[in-house]
User: Fold DDE Tnp4 domain-containing protein from Jaapia argillacea MUCL 33604.
Amino acid sequence: MLPNGIIRHLYGPMEGRRNDAFMLTESGLMEALAEFAKWEDVPDDGPPEERYFQVFGDPAYGIGNHLVSPFAIRIEVEHGFGIVSNTWPFLNAGWKMQLYHSSVGRYYRVGVLLTNTLNCLHPNQVAQYFDCQPPDLQDYFHEDT
Assistant:
């Protein structure tokens, strides 16, 4: 969940019994940050907070060059899940969602895409809380005009 209310890195589906640390490792997010989240023109021997973009994570993940967890921010991420499931109640119908019998992952990805689209039109509570505007639809969908 970005401060502008956009759900940016969506990984899965994963079995519900997997814990967050396992999913973080499996998602490849930390490797992607190591490759792409660097400030340009900063010496390699500079402090990490000046060399790398950093994301906030749950305190259970620890800290690293790209991940800091000084605050309990889990509630904003949970708001993201809540926004998706409250906007699209079908995704909350667990009795209809059966692993290997339904396209659960596909349904959720479409729900996130549509939720992000709505957020671009009407900023959600996360964007409002952080006072960070989401992109307009043209930028979100990378249209060139």
